[in-house]
Amino acid sequence: MPYTTSMAFWTLAPGHGVLRSQPLEAPGPQDVLVEALYSGVSRGTEALVFTGRVPPSEYQRMRAPFQEGDFPGPLKYGYASVGRVVEGPEELRERRVFCLYPHQQRYVVPASAVHLLPDDVPAERAVLAANLETAINGVWDAAPGLGDRICVIGAGVVGALVAWLCDGIPGTQVCLVDIEPGRASLAQSLGVNFALPEEAPLDNDLVIHVSGHPAGLETALRVAAREATLVEMSWYGEQPVALSLGGAFHSQRLTLRSSQVGGIAPQRQPRWDFRRRLELALRLLAEPRLDALISGETPFASLPDEMPRLVQGGGRVLCHRIRYAPT
User: Could you tell me the pTM of the whole model?
Assistant: First the structure.
């Protein structure tokens, strides 16, 4: 017999999700039972998963840590859960934690899989931890320097976080670029400059592309200075990308580098692991300005109806927070 049951969000087929009840096994001595408070939906990876656009070649690499089922579905997916430990080792009981877990009311995981929230980080904001971890790894790969002119193309959650991190380096001049004029207010909230693509500053020492659209990558090539580095953080799923490499790419001697959160940036690997990187992300979430990246909140019961709207939300949706009613 199951120890208890829990409701979880499952994608049954591309564009169609439901809430399902599933059994939970009793936690062992090294496990915790977590009651979810919030989870986060970010339009990037989750949109590709929900709409069935993960290419078969990436089925294994794209698996979330506690995913159930297989691509393209049915599957349970997600990686931004914040909750409260209700059973487990005494030092964790009643503590607020972050876990790379799908959208589910309660779940049992090894105690080593949860990360304590710092006291000055509210649970509502902690849903940004996975996105901030991605941004941190991207900045490590980009290796910005003191005084660099930096252009970040794409003002989604990850792009905005990358711009915010780069702006904290002394002397940098950072511009966040997006096709949506409304993202100017987001940039202002984070303390960075904003421009539409046609107004983006030229001759940047470093360009980081996070828009997820090939047109953004073309803009990135255009605004890079001679011998500059262009870091590609977008992941396109099954979408083919045509890139014009016959112009400034060769004459400007540009470097195109990929970045992906599934691996630690090479120069950090001797000293950093995934746990240390995520703990850094959680500490940095003490910044109240990052609340600007939460674009809405709905109850968990509404997620099957809400998810299609979220993944098609364009510039209106950043990180959407799911609220779990107390039990």
Answer: 0.94
Query: How is residue 119 written in tokens?
Result: 């006291």
Rounded Cα distance between 267 and 263, Å, is 11
CA 270 to chain centre: 24
What b/e string do you get for 163-188 counting C-beta neighbours within 10 Å, with b at 16 or more? bbbbbeeeebbbbbbbbeeebbebbe
Phi-psi region of 69 (alpha: psi -120 to 50; beta: other; left: phi over 0): left
Of 8, 27, 26, 25, give the one whose Cα is nearest residue 17: 8
Identity at 42, one-letter amino acid code? S
Shortest CA distance to 306 belongs to which of 293, 292, 294, 296? 296
Matching residue, tokens 């609340």: 291
Q: What per-residue confidence (pLDDT) applies to 315? A: 61
d(CA 324, CA 326): 6
Alpha carbon separation from 306 to 12, 83, 100, 295 (Å, rounded):
15, 21, 21, 13
Residue closest to 142 by CA, chosen among 64, 192, 204:
204
DSSP string for residues in 93-155 = TT-EEEE---SBSEEEEEGGGEEEPPTTS-HHHHTTHHHHHHHHHHHHHH---TT-EEEEE--
Query: Do residues 266 and 290 make contact, with C-beta atoms less than 8 angstroms apart?
Result: no
Average confidence (pLDDT) per 10 residues, the chain, 327 residues: 85 95 94 98 86 90 93 95 97 97 98 98 98 96 97 96 98 97 96 97 97 90 94 81 77 88 90 97 98 95 94 79 81
